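seq as requested:
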Amino acid sequence: MASVTLEHVYKSFGPTKVVHDANLDIEDGDFVVLVGPSGCGKSTTLRMVAGLEEITDGQIKIGDKVVNELSPRDRDVAMVFQSYALYPHMSVRENIAFGLRLRKMDPAEIDKRVKEASAILGLDDLLERKPKQLSGGQRQRVAMGRSIVRQPSVFLFDEPLSNLDAKLRVQMRSEIARLHQRLGTTTVYVTHDQVEAMTLAKNIVVMKDGLIQQVGAPLELYRSPVNTFVAGFIGSPAMNFFDCDVVGRDGEHRLVNELFDVPMPERFKAELGNETELVLGIRPEHFGEPGSGDGHVPMQIEVLEPLGSTVHALGNVGDRPATATLEPETKVAVGETVKMAIDFEHLHLFVRSTGLALGV
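struct tokens:
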């Protein structure tokens, strides 16, 4: 096992800058997920760690060794791709063992490693089958087994579950989590699915336009996002955002727009400075059933999505889309305009001009 360190790493394809000044410390044994929308640079970052892309500038270390000039095979990493890339004419056993045979490893050691990987991944009954006889999830487990037998210092996963259906993705997520708990190998995992990131990661790296926006534990990013991008990307359903102005009245600050007039929590005042144009952020679970108090926002209900334990109410606050999480027995009806209550303990504020959070 080994740590992974990126120091001022840049990547450009001609004039196009893809990754900008990436700095990242991944501890030995950590499970880190790089997440962000398509084109944000997450897969390119992973490929630079693997040695499949040359870096334009900066330094990458695996353990205490600078690997900028090392070939992929000399970096002691194993990569699992979105594509299974199995040899169709080979059995599961032969696919898993193929890389070790190329290295001319002792046959007894190859057999031992294949049996160990097969036991970990539940492939014992499938070893003599060909890939065409396997389901998508089974093929992905074979691809993972091919990496496990190498016993690398670092596992690299590049959107490995994207080709699976929703049920299989959930199953494979739990298998990957159990695999990491069992092996303890440093793992870097790329996905565009924030639910995947939240459920798998010890630490999440959120990227946008080639820049690292925030690094932290899943709940840290969920509860204390540093900007509107992270706040809107992490969490499902996404956070609601409403533009508002700060207005002083009767010795207090209030958050005001054409539809609501609510008090600003005390914890934000120290960082407010001269800012008067803000964005109020509130997650759907903290924006719900009408209640008493000073803090209501009128929402026109357009769709109700019953999910059993909760109901998602979708609609609009003025011209902004909004989602509220309601109790399953809610009396709210489609077509109504309802004064939704804000949970002020969980309210977020951002500077409108920069998107940066206050109070973080």
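The first strand starts at residue 4 and ends at 13.
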